[in-house]
Backbone:
């Protein structure tokens, strides 16, 4: 009798979930150990984190506000992943969406029921425009989209800062380095939580249906799995790549629209708060499934929210970042380990 | 339906509050029950702006040993700032002090927490429970500008700024006006690097200014990068926040130094006693902001001439008097008029002779 490890070709969702839960517990255990070693009371901190995130209305409101952009940027990166494309530029498209929405909000007077949809439409169009060149270059010239989408993030971030301190600068209320307050806002439904949250949820659910239950979604999956085979089967692979990337840009831009019209109400540098990059993390956790974006974004939102609680308990921002990294690192290892199971090989009976 | 619920245009209120305009008198708090929270814009170890505020926090701890203080450093200028201030309130803080401008991010929280006292450094709004404070750093910059005007050989000053916002306009304008008061041929070239703390960008900006012929660098940075540039190139530099002469003893001229210790102790004492009221407050030259003792390469007669103006300002003289033209040549302050602190605090145009900000 000898023990060995067997690699499973596919992992059932239940098995992966169990491994991931183990990973989170391990990461938290390591964190607890370090907190205890540095002379803090981990139980007190854990109690505070739970109370200030999921244990109070105040924490739940913040969680929903974090979730809104994370759901959309996570979905943006996930949909391109299904066709084998990495959109690293959600941050830039987020800014483009915020810029587009602000342009309409600041300079188009009108009733909110008219202006808000126009802001969203223009924001989404700007986000699509922001990814258009990388998308065309990827679909028709084979240019690596990882580099092109990433580099445009810096352009979008600086453009936002330029607009906020330059041509659109607020000279009325004396706010520093930001535009004037938008005259319209997305109405709140629950405390500080605005309509962007249920809309983002609905969008993700709609995408889950679109990617798994429609002919278009099927073509995306096949094109991502084997481009040659898809082409041979008569699918328009390039058009699909273009379509998915534009959709992705629009989704990230919608996150920017919600952030500026629902939460911040002014355009300013730093607005995106790294939500575009966290969207990549959410997509990696979601493993290509739009439905999985929901729990993945929830975990990310919880970590970010817990980070703020821990900072007010005098943990440095770097320590919080380290805890985030540890959790994700453990999950990555767990995802791989879930493929293995111990088996016992019986010695073959000899005649 | 979305639109009907959207509320009044331009309303900053999240829910109606009757006492918005009137200052609220907050009841006294026992020292042992009090929690005072500070939100900082950069790490407390930045060696500049936030370190100066942290010294104030330590002075509060020393003056009120039983009081609890918490701080969060590197508070981002995004909706995360609102979350952090909300968290302070949720933890029961009676006073929240933000050591940098967070605008609506703090106002959104203060309007919802009328029983908590809020103070915002470089803030511009006063509400029922939110006030602001700031240092009148332009007088120190003016004094340093006099030294710059007397020390420059090329008549070109360089300025490393962050964003074109009033405190940067006031800093650059004050240096140039001070320099021109003794040397009318001086000009000032500014570069904005979109950050308060970015040593690499500040080094590049300082080098570019030196290449352009500037032989005196100044600016508003939290760290000493452009002082090192000046030291290497054998030119002069004036700094901000703290004494930074150790990073360039030959180049160091002076610094706009900050001291919030007494002010923070007074602020917390007033809140504990129940006498705190929301107001806008300037810390004046010699009481929270000053020029640093002059560097060792500053000629004594130049130091004396600049210090004569410092003494005059501390006696009540305002050197910001017309005629002052803007960079486009328009007369903005007529002869015989003075710019008071409230006007300088809103300064959003560059004076004639300053380039690179508009």
Residues:
């Amino acid at each position: 009798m000898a023990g060995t490890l067997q690699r499973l070709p596919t992992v059932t969702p239940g098995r992966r979930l169990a491994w991931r839960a183990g990973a989170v517990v391990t990461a938290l255990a390591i964190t607890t150990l370090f907190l205890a070693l540095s002379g803090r009371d981990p139980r007190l901190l854990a109690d505070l984190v739970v109370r200030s995130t999921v244990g109070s209305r105040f924490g739940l409101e913040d969680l929903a506000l974090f979730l809104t952009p994370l759901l959309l940027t996570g979905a943006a990166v996930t949909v391109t992943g299904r066709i084998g494309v990495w959109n690293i530029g959600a941050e830039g498209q987020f800014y483009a969406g915020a810029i587009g929405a602000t342009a309409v909000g600041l300079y188009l007077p009108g009733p909110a029921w008219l202006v808000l949809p126009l802001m969203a439409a223009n924001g989404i169009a700007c986000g699509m425009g922001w990814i258009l060149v990388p998308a065309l270059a990827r679909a028709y010239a084979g240019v690596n989209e990882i580099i092109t989408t990433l580099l445009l993030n810096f352009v979008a971030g600086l453009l936002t800062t330029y607009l906020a301190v330059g041509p659109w600068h607020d000279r009325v209320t004396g706010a520093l380095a930001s535009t004037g307050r938008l005259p319209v806002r997305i109405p709140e439904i629950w405390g500080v939580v605005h309509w962007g949250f249920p809309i983002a949820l609905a969008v993700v659910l709609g995408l889950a249906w679109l990617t798994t239950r429609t002919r278009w979604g099927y073509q995306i999956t096949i094109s991502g799995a084997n481009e040659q085979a898809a082409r041979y089967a008569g699918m328009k692979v390039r058009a699909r790549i273009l379509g998915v990337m534009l959709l992705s840009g629009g989704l990230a831009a919608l996150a920017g629209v919600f952030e500026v019209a629902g939460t911040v109400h002014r355009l300013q540098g730093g607005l995106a708060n790294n939500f575009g990059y966290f969207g990549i993390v959410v997509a990696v956790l979601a493993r290509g499934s739009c439905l999985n974006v929901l729990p993945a974004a929830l975990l990310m939102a919880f970590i970010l929210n817990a980070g703020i609680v821990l900072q007010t308990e005098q943990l440095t921002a770097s320590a919080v970042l380290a805890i985030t990294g540890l959790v994700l690192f453990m999950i990555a290892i767990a995802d791989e380990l879930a493929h293995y199971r111990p088996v016992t090989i019986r010695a073959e009976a000899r005649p | 339906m979305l639109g009907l619920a959207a509320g009044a245009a331009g309303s900053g209120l999240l829910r109606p509050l009757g006492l918005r305009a009137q200052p609220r008198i907050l009841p006294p708090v026992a020292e042992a029950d009090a929690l005072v929270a500070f939100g900082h814009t950069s790490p407390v170890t930045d060696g500049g702006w936030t370190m100066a505020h942290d010294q104030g926090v330590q002075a509060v701890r020393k003056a009120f040993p039983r009081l609890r203080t918490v701080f969060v450093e590197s508070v981002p200028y995004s909706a995360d700032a609102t979350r952090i201030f909300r968290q302070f309130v949720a933890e029961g803080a009676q006073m929240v002090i933000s050591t940098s401008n967070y605008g609506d991010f703090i106002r959104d929280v203060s309007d919802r927490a009328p029983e908590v006292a809020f103070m915002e450094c470089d803030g511009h709004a006063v509400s029922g429970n939110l006030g602001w404070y700031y240092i009148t750093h332009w007088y120190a910059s003016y004094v340093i500008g006099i030294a710059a005007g007397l020390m420059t050989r090329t008549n070109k000053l360089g300025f490393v700024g962050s964003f074109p916002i009033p405190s940067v306009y006031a800093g650059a304008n004050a240096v140039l006006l001070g320099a021109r008061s003794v040397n009318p041929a001086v000009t000032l070239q500014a570069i904005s690097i979109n950050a308060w703390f970015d040593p690499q960008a500040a080094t590049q900006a300082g080098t570019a200014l030196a290449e352009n012929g500037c032989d005196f660098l100044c600016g508003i940075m939290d760290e000493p990068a452009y002082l090192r540039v000046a030291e290497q190139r054998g030119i002069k530099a004036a700094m901000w926040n703290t004494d930074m002469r150790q990073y360039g003893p030959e180049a160091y001229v002076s610094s706009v130094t900050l001291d919030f210790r007494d002010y923070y102790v007074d602020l917390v004492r007033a809140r504990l006693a129940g006498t705190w009221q929301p107001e806008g407050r300037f810390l004046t030259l010699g009481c929270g902001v000053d020029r640093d003792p002059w560097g060792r390469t500053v000629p004594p007669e130049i130091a004396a001439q600049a210090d004569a103006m410092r003494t005059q300002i501390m006696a009540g003289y305002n050197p910001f008097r017309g005629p002052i033209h803007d960079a486009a040549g328009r007369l903005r302050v007529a002869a015989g008029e003075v710019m008071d602190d409230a006007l300088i605090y809103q300064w959003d145009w560059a004076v004639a002779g300053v380039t690179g900000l508009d």
The domain at 22-135+260-283 of chain B is CATH 3.40.50.2300 (Rossmann fold). The radius of gyration of chain B is 21 Å. Residues 1-20 of chain B have pLDDT under 50 and may be disordered. DSSP finds ten helices and 15 strands in chain B.
